Amino acid sequence: MSSKPSIPKGTRDFSTKEMLKREYIFENIKQVFRLFGYQPIETPAMENITTLLGKYGDEGDKLLFRILNSGDFLSSLNYDDMTTLEYSKLSSKICEKGLRYDLTVPFARYVVQHREEIVFPFKRYQIQPVWRADRPQKGRYREFFQCDVDVIGSDSILNEYELIRIIDDIFKILRISTVIKINNRKVLAGIAAYIGESDRIIDITVAIDKLDKIGIENVNSELSTKGLSEKAISNLQPFLQLNGNTSDKLGTLNRLLSESEVGKKGITELQTLFTYIGNRSLSCDIELDLTLARGLNYYTGAIIEVKSKDVNIGSICGGGRYDNLTGVFGMEGVSGVGISFGADRIYDVMNQLNLFDDLKGSSTDVLIVNFGEDETKYSLKILDKLHEMGVKTELFPDPAKLKKQLSYADSKKIPFILMAGENEINNNCIKVKNMSSGEQKEISMKVLKKFVENEIRQTKGIDSLPPNLKIL
């Protein structure tokens, strides 16, 4: 007996019902992106491995899914290569491509490759899957979708503010209560200099980025194993435990980092951003969090992370400023900033909070019952009319028993049934059944359009725009 097929760990199948919910998330995110003037692009699932390596730090490089060269990929190696080369060097010889780790690095590659076609500042969004060879656990998958929005070719802090507004609008529509945490990598660089460990900025940011997961004692222990002195670790503690409101924190930073040019520049950027934020009422909470580091090496300015207030699942959105990511591809001095929404975690949060409960579970609004060959000709005319009006309509393909067809509609949660037998055809009318109320009535074909406007369109569909999106 053959074994039951399975899928790789860290990946998931999505049923029709689940996909309708996911598309609801995607469509609302897209609507907000477009509202702010962002345009879509797509990049390949695979990139040259040289494009990906070195952009995410040592830990990120280890999580890259590499693709074996096609054909006889071992033909260029000899026995000594296979027994003496380190894994990374051997891998680079037999794997010239890899699955993308995120959408930001491919975007930077895209900008450089298509620079002659792009008008700057370039505002793009991209919704595609990414892959990471991570250990699967709750809220962490090996294949997952990211919904990225970036603007590149502008240094203005207004771009960071716009991204904060986008975050607030999207989670307001999706009804997820969030807290947006903000920091600045220049401030972190200033802190590293203050404790006398400027050359260990990467070790410091990677360690403190784990503070929420492993606690302050384990962070300090990790820093010690990286070679930081006890004095440096001790001098770091006031920053990790900084309290008070945003104004208090910025005041303390100004005092402690008064001798650091890069630190003061980061503080000025934060002050500007929080001034913009303070001039507009937002639904979410905003917090200056000096323990926020985001481990990706390419961030150089503002860093942003969003968490659900009601579900403990980690970050559901994050990003930041990168001043010269395109520089590694030969295009220097082009600054960008962007954020990425984790669609899979957002989906899990909404499921856990039952935020999909009031969404219709079908993509079909109307089912036309099939009574046989003669009735089908009449029904096809109705089908065409409804499609012309934009009503999602199915004609049941077989003249099955009425009970079976009604059961089909019920299982797909189709709200309206249309039936046309001999009498209806002779009288140029149609019988309508509301599956929710059970009400059944006969209407003339002359008033079909009116019926669609007054009743079918009044039924909230899963792809209907939420009312608050229309007034943004």
Number of helices, where a helix is a run of at least 4 consecutive DSSP H or I residues? 18
Low-confidence stretches: 460-472
CATH H-level name of the largest domain... which superfamily? Bira Bifunctional Protein, Domain 2
Class per helix and strand makeup? alpha+beta
Q: Look up the CATH topology of the largest domain.
A: BirA Bifunctional Protein, domain 2
Oligomer: single chain
- Sheet-strand content, in percent, reads 15-25%
Count of all domains: 2
CATH architecture type of the largest domain: 2-Layer Sandwich
Distance between the termini: 58 Å
General shape: elongated
The total beta strand count reads 16
Mean pLDDT, all residues: 88
Strand count, sense and closure of the main sheet? Answer: 8 strands, mixed
Highest CATH level, the class of the largest domain: Alpha Beta
Strand arrangement in the largest pleated sheet: 1-5-6-11-10-9-7-8
Radius of gyration: 28 Å
Helix content: 40-55%
Topology:
Layout: H1 16-35, E1 39-40, E2 46-48, H2 49-52, H3 57-62, E3 66-67, H4 79-84, H5 87-94, E4 97-99, H6 104-113, E5 122-131, E6 143-152, H7 158-173, E7 178-184, H8 185-194, H9 201-208, H10 211-225, H11 230-240, H12 246-256, H13 261-278, E8 285-288, E9 302-308, E10 315-322, E11 336-342, H14 343-352, E12 366-368, H15 373-388, E13 393-395, H16 402-411, E14 416-419, H17 422-426, E15 429-434, E16 440-444, H18 448-456
Parallel strand pairs: 1-5, 7-8, 12-13, 12-14
Antiparallel strand pairs: 2-4, 3-4, 5-6, 6-11, 7-9, 9-10, 10-11, 14-15, 15-16
Helix pairs in contact: 1-7, 1-14, 7-13, 8-13, 9-10, 12-13
